[in-house]
Design a protein that fits this description.
The chain has 67 residues and is mainly beta. 7% of the residues lie in helices and 15% in strands. It has one domain. The protein has one helix spanning 34-38; strands spanning 11-12, 17-19, 22-24, 29-30. It is elongated and about 40 Å long. The mean pLDDT is 87.
């Protein structure tokens, strides 16, 4: 199964900031590669398998991941 949306919507830095050791001036366009997050084996038990349990509790309600 392929990724339906591998990239997030573009964002811009609201202030001058440093991210991962890189300086980003205010207004810099930022694109997040969602695949790098959604397939991270340090975060998900089964990153290569569709598993609604990653996001839902036993009542079927959305659970925010804190990591």
């Amino acid at each position: 199964m392929g990724n339906i949306v591998p990239l997030n919507m573009p964002r811009t830095a609201s202030n001058d900031t440093t991210l991962g050791g890189h300086f980003l001036p205010k207004g810099t366009a930022i694109m997040t590669n969602l695949a790098s997050v959604m397939f991270d084996k340090t975060v998900w038990q089964t990153p290569d398998t569709f598993n609604p349990g990653h996001f839902l509790d036993s009542d079927g309600k959305f659970v925010r991941q804190e990591k």
